[in-house]
Inverse folding.
């Protein structure tokens, strides 16, 4: 298990993106990402954003999703489009946050983030399979925990190919925390099934080289 | 259309989240779930609203920055702000 950094270095708020890391913090975090292929972003969501998103998730409602492209076609629940998704897409596409992610990952082509909110319920057959996500211009992954309380299981695992050795494991159980992790043709990842009684609800998605506006679904929403 | 004038002051609504994406402002009303995108000129108006609040000051700054007749700028600013007030993106004061 890789320990999470105890330091909060970036936070997404309704009013602004706060970056409180010193140059040394940023350098340490970047080195951590290079070494582990992942880094934990403590308290990425400000408390009022987290509370709003958690409440809105329950209002927007879920529908079942089948991952046809993965072995065994795993199933989970996908949140319907609504305010919860909208506000998180807006905050994660903030220019300062994207610049932070480019610095953390060294992926200078990143221009946007596109994600979905999904839920895995313990003992409901909501499984995952090893995969690499290398489609659609995806460059790196961000997973933000939106669960109402800490869950059990749901461990993110990253393995290196061809040996298949697991090089990173982390259960991001604290609501509001996030994991930023790398993609690559020699890397695969999966999340182990949730256990216990609390469902695992996350906003998970990909930093991409695509322009920002289509990522947040705004192409036809101009007022002026 | 909501009536606004140069004497009107406005501020962002409490339930509105604003971000600039690729230099253009995107506004999300958390209550209604509606997005609004502003083009670069609208984005500049938004920035000046955030800075000055009073629309006379917004129009004055726009006239200094843009090569257009003052009456055209005034009309366009008031029309945009009226729309934003109506959609509860901004709140108008006296």
């Amino acid at each position: 298990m890789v320990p999470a950094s105890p330091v909060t270095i970036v936070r997404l708020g309704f009013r602004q993106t706060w970056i409180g890391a010193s140059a040394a913090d940023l350098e340490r975090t970047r080195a951590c990402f290079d070494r582990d292929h992942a880094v934990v972003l403590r308290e990425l969501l400000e408390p009022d954003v987290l509370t709003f998103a958690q409440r809105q998730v329950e209002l927007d409602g879920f529908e079942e999703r089948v991952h046809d492209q993965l072995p065994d076609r795993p199933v989970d629940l996908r949140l319907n489009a609504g305010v919860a998704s909208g506000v998180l897409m807006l905050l994660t596409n903030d220019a300062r946050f994207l610049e932070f992610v480019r610095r953390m990952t060294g992926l200078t082509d990143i221009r946007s983030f596109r994600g979905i909110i999904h839920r895995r319920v313990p003992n409901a057959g909501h499984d995952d399979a090893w995969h690499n996500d290398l489609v659609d211009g995806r460059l790196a992954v961000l997973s933000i925990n939106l669960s109402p309380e800490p869950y059990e299981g749901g461990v993110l695992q990253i393995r290196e190919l061809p040996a298949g050795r697991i090089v990173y494991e982390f259960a991001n159980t604290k609501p509001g925390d996030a994991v930023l992790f790398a993609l690559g043709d020699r890397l695969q990842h999966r999340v182990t099934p949730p256990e216990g009684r609390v469902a695992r609800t996350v906003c998970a998605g990909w930093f991409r080289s695509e322009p920002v506006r289509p990522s947040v679904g705004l192409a036809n929403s101009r007022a002026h | 259309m909501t009536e606004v004038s140069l004497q009107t002051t406005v501020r962002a609504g409490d339930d509105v989240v604003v971000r600039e994406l690729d230099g253009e402002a995107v506004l999300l009303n958390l209550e209604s779930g509606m997005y609004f995108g502003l083009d670069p000129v609208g984005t500049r108006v938004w920035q000046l609203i955030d800075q000055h609040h009073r629309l006379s000051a917004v129009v004055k700054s726009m006239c200094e920055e843009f090569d257009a007749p003052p009456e055209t700028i005034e009309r366009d600013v008031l029309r945009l702000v009226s729309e934003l007030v109506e959609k509860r993106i901004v709140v108008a004061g006296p």
